[in-house]
Design brief:
α2 packs parallel to α3. About 0% of the residues have low confidence. The chain has 20 helices and 16 strands. The protein is about 50% helix and about 15% strand. The protein has 4 domains: about 130 residues, Rossmann fold (3-Layer(aba) Sandwich), CATH 3.40.50.2300; about 160 residues, P-loop containing nucleotide triphosphate hydrolases (Rossmann fold, 3-Layer(aba) Sandwich); about 80 residues, Helicase, Ruva Protein, domain 3 (Orthogonal Bundle), CATH 1.10.8; about 45 residues.
């Protein structure tokens, strides 16, 4: 250890305190002592200790009561109890309250104490390290991989903060590649369940039978090859979060089973009869229109309302082009770190092509395109030369597309285009003209002018 662990010894027998002090100081620890539990409580208030060793039988307060007082005051570090009398009841009580171990003061108990002290401090170190790693993971994955300054993304970030603290079921919709799993992870990592498991399941990747056994588990003999009992992912995710990706691809029979979990918070393993309670938050996602599937009797209406308590819609990349430079810089920095190379920047020409491409594969396609370019590039600047052909030629193709040989009426074409964009903006904002004007980056007065010009009904 780089820093010496600090240990407090609490015992009303002076000879025991002195013996332990000498012994533990030789082991390289910083040691303090207290002749009573009350004095021990005072020292804990003024100093930080990594471990407390206490006698169980003291004049002013028992070691059990001392531990109880420590926990009530917020001391959560390691605690070892010593006693001259074996008592299974006291040992069980101490361990239930969070004591690390319970040691009898036998003739050679010092060697046992030495082993237990080192083990307790190593457990503490690993716990601290785990907490640190989880904190760093949250920094990276909590919101860090969700990049965006656009209005749509800022609204999404606010919604994530709001819904994270609840236990409500969330339905994330959006095209493939928009980052639905990243949003689900961000919700989990910013929730009270962050320390528990996050389990991701792609419902479209399994047949109905396999998906059932994956989610609910099975009992021995349920089918050929089921030689042991196996927990399902709902059980594994207990106290945590389960992410059901592509929930729209589940069969109607599976939808009934999912509905039961949402309603009753109980599961039954395949081939079993036991009802198993599960405390799990469900986040679902799909790139399909579930309301349309409900209308076509392909998705259960009752399940639709259960999974979409809080709906979150991810915008496609082409609807938030302002975020493309930020995303590109983010992916470039990550590639620099992982591949040990250094690209100073993305050329203006390359960035322009990235910003004008339609990105049907969304953020995932952008990341893959940049990785390809990164690998092929030999200079310290990411140029347009190594971008995928469909990206590098997209702007030229769009500008020359559908241009008739005989020419055309440009003013009429522009007017029709303007009208269609106004109508689309109104549709997306449910007819709220102020919001539609904001969407088109124009003043409300100008928006009203064009509505009248093109006879668009209010």
């Amino acid at each position: 250890m780089t820093k010496r662990a600090k240990i407090l010894i609490v015992d009303d027998e002076r000879s025991i305190r002195e013996l332990l002090e000498i012994f533990l100081k030789k082991e390289g620890f910083e040691v303090k002592s207290a002749p009573s539990a009350l004095e021990g409580l005072t020292q804990v208030k003024t100093s930080d200790f990594d471990l407390i060793i206490s006698d169980i039988k003291m004049a002013d307060m028992s070691g059990i009561d001392f531990l109880r007082e420590l926990r009530a005051s917020g001391f959560n570090d390691q605690f070892i109890l010593l006693t001259a009398f074996a008592s299974a009841e006291a040992a069980i009580q101490a361990l239930k309250m969070g004591a690390f171990d319970y040691i009898l003061k036998t003739e050679n108990f010092m060697e046992e104490l030495k082993l237990v002290v080192h083990k307790a401090l190593e457990t503490r170190r690993l716990r601290e390290e785990n907490t640190y790693l989880k904190r760093e993971f949250k920094k990276v994955h909590g919101m860090g991989n969700l990049i965006g300054k656009s209005k749509k993304m800022q609204e999404l970030f606010k919604m994530i903060e709001v819904v994270s603290v609840t236990n409500s079921t969330v339905l994330i919709t959006g095209e493939s590649g928009t980052g639905k799993e990243l949003v689900a992870k961000a919700i989990h990592l910013n929730s009270p369940r962050a320390e528990e498991a996050f389990i991701s399941v792609n419902c479209g990747a399994f047949t109905e039978t396999l998906l059932e056994s994956e989610l609910f588990g099975y009992v021995r003999g349920a089918f050929t090859g089921a030689t042991t009992n196996k927990k399902g992912l709902f059980e594994v995710a207990d106290k945590g979060t389960i992410f059901l990706d592509e929930v729209g691809d589940t069969s109607l029979a599976m939808q009934v089973k999912l509905l039961r979990v949402l309603q009753e918070r109980m599961i039954r393993r395949v081939g079993g009869t036991e009802e198993i309670p599960v405390d799990v938050r469900i986040i679902a996602a799909t790139n399909r229109d579930l309301s349309e599937m409900v209308a076509e009797s392909q998705f259960r209406e009752d399940l639709f309302y259960r999974v979409s308590v809080i709906p979150l819609e991810l915008p496609p990349l082409r609807h938030r082009r302002d975020d493309i430079p930020l995303l590109a810089d983010h992916f470039l920095a990550r590639l620099n770190a992982s591949m040990g190379r250094k690209f100073d920047r993305i050329s203006d020409e390359a960035l322009k092509k990235l910003e004008t491409y339609e990105w049907p594969g969304n953020v995932r396609e952008l990341e893959n395109a940049l990785e390809r370019s990164f690998i092929l590039e030999t200079s310290n600047e990411l140029s347009a030369q190594h971008l995928p052909e469909n990206v590098s030629t997209s702007s030229r193709m769009r500008s020359n597309a559908n241009f008739p040989e005989e020419g055309f009426d440009l003013e009429l074409y522009v007017e029709n285009l303007q009208k269609s964009f106004l109508e689309e903006a109104l549709r997306r904002t449910n007819g709220v003209q102020v919001k539609a004007a904001e969407l088109l980056r124009m003043s409300y007065r100008s928006f009203r002018h064009y509505m009248q010009k093109y006879n668009i009904p209010s």
